[in-house]
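Title: Comparing notes on inverse folding

I've been comparing how different people in this forum approach sequence design from structure. To keep things fair, I'm posting one structure and asking everyone to reply with a full sequence. Here's the target:
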């Protein structure tokens, strides 16, 4: 681990950058480190360096699972970031992401899906704009 504006756990930093882009990851980690550098390192080790590096699911499938969970949680900023990263960086088709959100109607009801569709629409506009 090297020290900069935030502690860097190299494997985690690389994986996060592959999915979300280095600029996004750097901003995110700098923000976390401003609150607590140890938590920033923990986040990198567990999320980017741990769960995201497991070889059981491919990254696109892992991100589609994240989109399902974030739709159910109605976690707007994270959902939007995951939608954009999955389409832009991991090769998911817009239709695949849409289908995952629509599938949540079975588990979360129509208000959850309507919420998810709104975030999906915003994310596509940002990707295209």
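Reply #1:
Here's my take.
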């Amino acid at each position: 681990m090297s020290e900069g504006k935030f502690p860097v756990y190299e494997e985690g930093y690389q994986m996060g950058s592959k999915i979300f882009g280095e600029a996004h990851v750097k901003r995110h980690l700098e923000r976390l480190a401003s609150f607590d550098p140890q938590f920033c390192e923990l986040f990198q080790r567990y999320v980017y360096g741990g769960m995201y590096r497991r070889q059981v699911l491919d990254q696109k499938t892992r991100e589609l699972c994240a989109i399902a969970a974030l739709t159910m949680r109605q976690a707007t900023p994270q959902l939007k970031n995951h939608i954009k990263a999955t389409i832009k960086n991991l090769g998911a088709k817009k239709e695949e992401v849409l289908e995952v959100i629509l599938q949540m109607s079975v588990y979360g009801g129509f208000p959850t899906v309507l919420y998810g569709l709104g975030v999906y629409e915003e994310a596509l506009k940002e990707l295209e704009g």
